[in-house]
Design brief:
Blueprint: E1 2-8, E2 11-17, E3 23-27, E4 30-35, E5 44-53, E6 56-67, E7 72-79, E8 82-90, H1 91-96, H2 108-143, H3 146-169, E9 174-180, E10 184-189, H4 196-224, H5 227-243, H6 251-263, H7 265-286, H8 289-307, H9 319-344, H10 353-359
Antiparallel strand pairs: 1-2, 2-3, 3-4, 5-6, 6-7, 7-8, 9-10
Length: 360
Amino acid sequence: MELLSIDLFGKPLRLEGTMAGWQQLYWDHQVVSERAASPIDENDIQHIFELQTNEGSVEVALALKLNWQPFELSYVVEANGQRLAEGERNLQDLASETPQEIIPEKQRFSVIGLGSLAFKLLKSAKVIKVVFAGASIAAYSWLFSFQFALALIGCLVFHEYGHILAMKHFGMKTKGIYLIPFVGGLALGDAKINTRWQDVVIAIMGPSFGLILSLISLVIYGFTGEKMFAGLAAFNALLNLFNLLPILPLDGGHILKSISFSIDSGIGILLCTLAAAGGVYLSYTFGLALLGFMLIIGSLEILAEWRTRHQSRLYPLDGYGQLFSLAWYLIVLGGLVSVLWYVAGTGDEVLGLPLKVLQN
């Protein structure tokens, strides 16, 4: 996680670290100091390194006082014995900021080529979104009907917008929403996260927005009596319930991962693996090819977490955060199930189909 980012001689001085004690200090894109993981918990840490500036060689010292629970960081930066900067950071600072990507410096010819390619991709991003959206409408119209395709696209966009709004809340740059035929929607961000809390909020906001859409549809149904809105509420609820399955890379899987890994990395790996095994059973039993495809992606995510289990880069949830996240998850889950029960209670056989699908 990014612990500190300040300006030093016109370039960013960034400190990344883990709770295991590993730290790496960058000046611009160059590693200037590194500290190995240690079983000994040290509060007073010092990085001493030399920089080549326009004014010549400068010896820099970064002194840290670091406390993890609760997170508190104070720092002092000195150059050739002269104090240049000092300050403090707390958990709110850590959770409200997104770390900057470390982009290695390239040779001149590579920079020009990659920059040109990136510019072209940026220009074509909107075109790609339009093409994917059109392909999604065509695909779902072919499977169902044009009206149903539009309703499905609306549900997907509303859900993904919840993720986008959460990313923006944390100051993250976003690339927008992409609709992928036969798969669903994808909200893309352009920054890393620092804490498990950020992961929970970004994940749960999609289903939360889905619940809001279902409730709005029910209100419209109550005023107009149009069964189409009741059907939209039920189908959207079923769609978001699927997303809340505690299986990676679904939203529910990210919530499970954040809560369980905050307790212990071993517990996190065990629970995520058991959830994946349950997903394999569901996929095989009910012939859910899409879920099977997602499980492959989720397995890679579990493997990545296992490899970094001793040096997690994300600040964990505290006990209150774990309980709050679980309560939020259960409230959204209960709300979506309640929508299905209510619609099924109208007595219409067609409107009761989503609940039957859930029961089966």
